[in-house]
Amino acid sequence: MSEAKRGPILGFFRGVWSVLTFAQQLVFNVFFLLFLLFAFVMLLAIAASPGVQPMHDDTALVLDLDGALVEQFTSAPVDRVINRATGQAQPEIQLRDLLQAIHAAREDARIDRIVLLTDGFSTSGFAAMRDLAAALRDFRASGKQVVAYGTDMEQRQYYIAAQADEVYLDPQGGVLLEGFGRYRMYYREGLQEKLGVDVHLFKVGEYKSAAEPYVLDAASPESREADLYWMNDVWQRFVADIAQARKVEVPALNAMINELPARVQAASGDLGKLALDEKLVDGLRTGHEFEQMMVERGTLDEDTQSFRQIGLDGYLMQINRPHLVAEPQPTVAVVVAQGEITYGQQPPGTVGGESTAELLRAAREDENVKAVLLRVDSPGGGVFPSEQIRREVELVQAAGKPVVVSMANVAASGGYWISMNADRIYADESTITGSIGIFGLWMTVPRVLEKIGVSTDGVGTTPLAGAFDPTRPLDPNVGLLIQSVIDRGYAEFIGKVAAARDSTPAEIDVNARGRVWSGAQAKERGLVDELGGFQAALDAAAALAKLEEGSYRVTYIEKPLTPFEQFVVNLGQNSRTEGLLRVLAPAPLMLDRETLATAERELAWLDRKGRSPFRAVAHCLCAY
């Protein structure tokens, strides 16, 4: 009787299970068929692809600057392709790509002008931006025109636009030149008084302000003094560059900036009209009106009904077509050190002690490499990984290959550490460098635990046992130990700088103590050798290696792509497969991965996993 009763119930669940199994197999098979279709279409597309299309005369090179200007992409190639396909890309533009395209377009008879689109452009500093501006001026010197357009322009976007022969702005837009500022949040009261976290700062140098927000409620007088000193230097150069580009007087431009609120009010709030009246722009045009103007000046493309044009990616494909090299050429190798300096192997956009040293080692061991250009854009980080890279620089030099450092936006603290032994150090006048100093930060939380009725107690075999437990109060002897390590680290830092710069520790200490300088100020104090951008440093590297112009090639030393990665990147560059990849790429996660990745990068230099409980840090929080 009971078996009969259970029969229908079991049958029901078995039926449900069969349906689920069928559905699972169906879904799997559908995805498998889609994958096969995807692969088949890709092969057809690749086989049918006509390759790089021929360019016609009277073509405009359109540089859409919608993205962050970087020395090196900060995500893996495959991630960039997939993120672009899913609309999750964080746009980035490599400075090297822009410089290469502008340089080639200068001599390319098919390119008649450059059109700059400035919407979305951003950068973390001004040295790389000044490299870009110099390239645009060089392009204009060839007699070709540069035209810029934006719907709205903040000061970094306008700086680039100002380098054009003509600047146009949307009638609803405006140009906002506001000056430079550096403001940070300070956590002392919240951490120490409200939460009960005890923060212990160990440092050398009254100007070493990176960790001040954890122990103060406002910036120290030394921090204010140093920041305003270098910031004013960079700002006056910024204004002078714009004034020169737009052929206006510096005092008049400064007056307009300082009186901006009143002048905007006088213009009835019309920022576009004010920009036109102040000669910051040459005209107000909608996007359609600007496009029609370019059609009238150029050649109509019948397919697009717009002016004949080519974008950055398409033009790079034109000028980077594979070509046979009869024999190996002498090479200047470029190694990029961009981002925080942390331990071990790190992806692009972060400087790893081991990974960046490996790139330098690869250049050292390549017999075709005759010189190395180390392009540094880093606020520093861990002392030990910085020292790993500095040692590899010395080994490259010991192999008979000169090393030249080109400082980009920031080469401070640990960024200066990895630079100091170069045969020549080049910095842009607006580079941020220096910050020669060391600090250590230690937090203890016994008062936090006390709030919830938790305490720590126990025994140890020595006075030091368990002393680095953050749940216990800091032992004064441990504080003495840490400060001694920090003192030694600082002495080592200025000692190495003195040896590298043919000076003495006492002389270096005068301009060190954690103080930040602009590139121009650092040159005056002997911390850099020459003022100049990337090209000047590259020329110097070739000259030190006794390479004549035109007799060598320039190669970036980077981690090579795997065959699969190269395959996916090629797909992303193929217009026939990009749309299909967009359809079949994994859907974006709801979690904001970029925000998490940014937070992880910013905190990576504090990581102590698997190492001593504390460590010295050479880091400069000098973004602005």
Quick tags:
single chain, 624 residues, alpha/beta, 2-enoyl-CoA Hydratase, Chain A, domain 1, 2 domains, eight-stranded mixed sheet, six-stranded parallel sheet, 23 helices, disordered N terminus
What does this structure look like?
The protein has 624 residues and is α/β, with parallel strands linked by helices. It is built from 23 helices and 27 strands. Strands 15, 18, 20, 21, 22, 24, 25 and 26 form an eight-stranded mixed beta sheet that branches. It has a six-stranded parallel beta sheet with strand order 11-8-6-4-1-14. The chain has two domains: 59-181 and 222-319, 2-enoyl-CoA Hydratase, Chain A, domain 1, CATH 3.90.226; 331-562 and 610-619, 2-enoyl-CoA Hydratase, Chain A, domain 1 (Alpha-Beta Complex), CATH 3.90.226.
Give the overall average pLDDT.
86
Taking all Cα atoms into account, the compactness measure Rg is 29 Å
Query: Which spans have pLDDT < 50 for at least 5 consecutive residues?
Result: 1-6, 45-50, 575-603
Provide the CATH top-level class of the largest domain: Alpha Beta
Overall body shape: globular
- Judged by helices, strands and strand pairing, the structural class is alpha/beta
Cα end-to-end separation: 82 Å
Structural domains: how many: 2
Return the CATH topology of the largest domain.
2-enoyl-CoA Hydratase, Chain A, domain 1
Tell me what portion of residues adopts beta-strand conformation. Answer: 15-25%
Largest sheet: 8 strands, mixed
Helix content: 40-55%
* CATH structural architecture of the largest domain: Alpha-Beta Complex
Number of strands: 27
The H-level CATH homologous superfamily of the largest domain, spelled out, is 2-enoyl-CoA Hydratase, Chain A, domain 1
Q: Total helix count?
A: 23
